[in-house]
Write a structure and sequence with these properties.
This protein is mainly beta. The chain has a domain at 1-32 and 584-775. 6% of the residues lie in helices and 62% in strands. The chain has four helices and 43 strands. The strands form four sheets. It has a 22-stranded antiparallel barrel. The protein has a two-stranded antiparallel sheet with strand order 4-5. Strand 9 and strand 10 (255-287) form a beta hairpin. It is globular and about 90 Å long. The two termini are 24 Å apart. Residues 8-22 have a biased composition (Low complexity). InterPro entries: Beta-barrel_TonB_sf, OMP_b-brl_3. It is found in: Cell outer membrane.
Length: 775
Amino acid sequence: MAQSVAYAEESTTATKSTEDATNQSSRERDRILLKRNPIASEYQTMGPPGDFYGATSDAEGVDFRSQFSLPTGPKEASSIRVEGNLNYQDIAEDVVPGGSLDLAKSFGPLSLQFQVQQNASKRIVDLYQARWLAVSEPALSDKDTMLLGFPRYSRDTFDTTSLDMRWRADYTLQDNVRLTYEGMSTNYDDTSTRDRLEFQNGVGSVSDAVLGSDGSTISEASIASSQLRRYFHQTQTARDINRHRLDLSIDGENGSTEVGMYYSHWVNRVLWQPWNFIDKNVSSSYNIDNRYLPESIAGNIDLYDVSNSVFANYRPSLTTTTDTDYAFIVDWDRKLTLADKVVWVGAGVDWRNKKRNNVNETLVYNATSDSFNLQDVIGNNGAISIMNGDYLLPTALDYAQSQAYFQANQSSQFALDLEQSFLQSIQNLYTSEETVGSAYVNAYQQLNNWFWRMGLRVERTKTNTRGAVSGPPEMDITSEGEAITSLTLNGETVAETFDSFDAAFVEGENSYQHVLPSLELRYKVNADLKLKMAYFEQLMRPQYYDTVRYRRINQPTREISEGSPDLEATSIRNVYAGLEYQYADEGQLVAGVYYNEVSNFFYDSVTTEALDGIVYDVTRVENGKDGYIRGLQAFWSYGFDFPVVASADVQLSYVYSDSEANLGDRTIVMPERAKHRLALNLLLADEKWQYASQFSWQSKAVDDVGQSAAQDTIREAVLVWNQSFTWHFDQQWSTRLALNNVLNTPDRSYQGEESRVVNNLYSGTTARLSVIFNY
């Protein structure tokens, strides 16, 4: 079965090569600036359970060394690996080239490694979204009912490239002393567009409403005096990431010492160019017979005649987010002999600091009396079929023509609104800094049948934030911080002399300490059976900007986002008990029960607020009170022998979670935690070929928490199936075909009741055909 292991390693490499930033799901694209949630189901490791975060680990599992993936350079190494590939998505139907180069070479005590990978893709994503509004319809119900307020039908396109480089140098100063420098660089660029039609039922008058069978949803209705919003944007993103670490390690039979330093600079620039056109006085109707793609009909206008869609506003925005990280670590351990028994004792300190700076300039251009309509800027575009041919989207804006039109008619047909430009620009100005210092002690011992490890980690976290707050003059905003008296817009200094609001930069700070114990026990019953118990504590600190005091109002989308200055860190106390059973030569079963006690957990809150008679969705991150997650984890792997293949390996992982989260006024399941998660990996290999199949499924989970259970957003079950096939022509040449998201199962969610769908997204299936040369 040795050959099976070699092929498995190749399978892992092949899988990693397809997990690049150009191929991310829409959900992950939106989370690029976020920390991961360690209790969310989608981030649970689908391998043998019982992972143990001891005292040597940061409480969040954060370690800058995990950012780097190249192993220690072997002595007398000399290798070359070249790959060329073609990338294809079934909706976009475009073929895009990419490739990679891996080099390794040693020169006596010096080992060098270098990797470069060019990833690229062109993709199309189709999306239906909706906002449901609570409205009073006494003729239907004595309680609030939910109206399909803003159904949206969209197509997104992505043209993405990413150049990723990694390098490492290991220099052996003495037999047991090594100096390591490792670095990585990413240059990511994409251009994305959105073509969206939105029925603004929420601004009209409702009639002929029909109450659905659930007793709370208006399943169909007629809307008078409403609007259509035709929204288009082009977004250009440029991301540059540079990370470096320098490490000195001394390894010996009786102990080791490591001193490491880390520096990272991360810049994300986004030029967002959104256009809005409005059709007024629209009479429309809808029904949700197909809840995943409700039918919306405009009764008194031709939906596909864009000559009556009048320009509303253009709001180009340039945002630059800069993260700068520093870290320092010292690890030390020694072998001691106590009462003729060997005990390993370790200690360490680490310090890390991250600063985020967000700057923005948004220019708001409104219409003038010399109006124009969408017909003037569509070029040769026409209606397009989306959602697997189930919806015909009207003609879209031509971005090249619209920019030319803006340049030619800026003075006559585009009125720069300095007040809104000022207000929307400052809403995206903030700084956030987080500094964590920690120290730990750790000890472990291997006895005949017993192994124990115990430790204690002390961490101190300090945060400083600065964000912009605005409000009407009677709120006396300027007394809360430093008044914002001017801002540079479009190359000119604009003084804050507006009557409708005052603005100020408001600072905030927080600091807290945590003492985090850990304990692990293992008992070897016999050569095949081992028992394990572990207890450890973790933290989940707030996102870098969630604690900033800010308030952003997006008028066209009727959305408000706010900071939560009083957020506390989430603490998680983990208990695990299980067994590991090794049977035959290639069989393993690992299973156990776990209990996670969670305090001050985070959740995305969505509430509503009326501004000037218009209802806005208000989103913020809040702390829940407490809760728990408990359940079962299991992992099974086995290597089969079949006459038709040299090896067949299967791995099956399962996590069952029973959870509860106390919000203070009601109890729900833990946000982002599914009850069931299952993963199945199959690897078939022969002398010339290898087939790998990766299947994962997780059941529904709460994504966003509303004001009531009727407004909670539930993410439906997630199903993913990836496959790859590799053919080896000889020891040097091979080819591989990888298929991702083969089933193209849509990402769907609903609000409170299954009939109220708020998201239905199709990401498409992607394929990568590679030719590989190894020397």
